[in-house]
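Form 7-S
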Amino acid sequence: MPDTPGSSQPRTAASPRRSAGRRILFVCVMLVALEAAGWLGDYIYGYHQRLLAALAMMRLNTQPIPALSDISNDRELTLRDATDGPEPAEPYKIGGVDIGSAGPWLKMRKALPEEVVRNGEHRVFVIGGSAAFGFPYRYADTFPSLVEPMLADQPIRILNAAQVGLTSGELAPVVDQAVRFYKPTTIVLFLGNNEWFHWQPLPKPPPSQRPQTQQPGETSINILRTLAHSRALSAVEYATVQWTVASRRARQDEARRSRTRDSFESHHELIGVDYAVAMPLPPERYAASQWLTVRKKYLDTFRSNLQKMIHSAREANVSVILLTVPFNPRLSPAWKHRQPHSFIPEHRQQVTAAIAEAARAVKQKRFDTGLATVDDALELDPHPAVLHYLRAQCLEGLQQHEQAELAYGESREKMMGNLGSRLSINRIITEVARKSDTPLIDVQAVFQQYGALRERYYNVDLIHDDCHPTPLGHQLIAESLAPLLRSAITGSGSP
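Output:
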């Protein structure tokens, strides 16, 4: 039958369109509601920032951590508690040596801006790793505490927001938090010791031993970071990533316990080269030449992170003071990681033999012979930290302490892993300070000058382990910091 004017046919055709429209509208409303719930949840729990941190942590062992610049609304800042923790149950030891007056007294507290921000005072935040934290000494023996009485005529309060073991990428959000919520006058950045903190020279296992679930690659992580702009997806991602990271950690722990891992006891020797000579990192475990590329990538990331932290502070009209990192130049090359004896395969046999010969010469106090042997080997391969350490031992044995200190420093520079590259870290800090016109305290130079004047070389009185200042070292830092803080305070406006 032909359609009539009163037919319901047009309405019947429109009904599916209206139903589809309602479904689309319902889906949109639900998505908006989920996203709103996600933003509310993130405001309360701050899981978005933790997700970004977790994604960065998934890059560990092979990649440095970039500055986490996407800031959460977490207003709570972790500070060192000036009241200290409990007395240690037994003497604190490093490398089998008792460290007098050390605890460690670790006690932290959470603070909100309204608990910290007071009108009429200048707030100075110290941000960095364990050296800035003052590990392992009482708060009263650390430079944040010691510098405050030196400025007693000023309305100043020092707040220690340093955290043990954090890299520059992980500390960037701490700077952002302090700047956004705590209205500081000055931020003191004392960092650079932990850039390779998580790195391990772990090779890929053979295909038969690889886990069926592989770690996300760089592209996958970047996609997850992009999707994380949605707070609703962030919640799902965060739960998934937490499970993935936990699984990865369990596999790594198992690998380290397995027979495929090199037998190595961390902190085996505080000083000396015996273990490094006897137990090199074999080439089948890790291709040493890879380290040169890895090292550059980490150093470049450190420079970028440092620049971003300074920029973040400057944007809020907060002054910054930079400190170089002091270190123990005589730290054993194998303190944290076993070291390769050669980076150049064609010279491996000759260099390995030279290391053994030079080590015997040092033990027999034939320092001239050992020095000649080492210098010849360095012509073949300038990279092994063990060679530079043996050279330093020979120079020390010959009473050439200033030259020995330089050689020990070069050994630290060449060390593969977390505790190496100290000279490069300090060069970057100095370079960034110069280019950004940021006040700088060259703490390592201050320490070396102190030792040279007293013929107490190698920071023996000022560093108790690899990088942590002694109370005397903290006193020197405080004395150097006080004039710069005074200048920053008097040159600034009212807090």
